[in-house]
Amino acid sequence: MEKANKKYDAYVQILKEELITAMGCTEPIALAYAAARCKELLGKLPEKVIVKVSGSIIKNVKSVVVPNTGGMKGIRAAVAAGFVAGRPEKKLEVISQVSDEERAAIQAYTEQADMEICYLDSGRVFDIIIEAVAGEDTAKVRIANYHTNIVLEEHNGEKLLETVVEGDQEEGLTDRSLLNMEDIWDFAMTCEIEDVRAILDHQIDCNMAIAKEGLTHPYGACIGQVMLDAYGDEIRNRASAMAAAGSDARMSGCELPVVINSGSGNQGITCSVPVIEYAKELCSGDEKMYRALALSNLVAIHQKTGIGRLSAFCGAVCAGVAAGAGIAYLRGGGFKEIAHTVVNGLAIVSGIVCDGAKPSCAAKIAASVNAGILGYEMYVRGQQFYDGDGLVTKGADNTIRNIGRLGKEGMAGTNDEIIKIMIE
Question: What is this structure's pTM?
Answer without folding.
Answer: 0.94
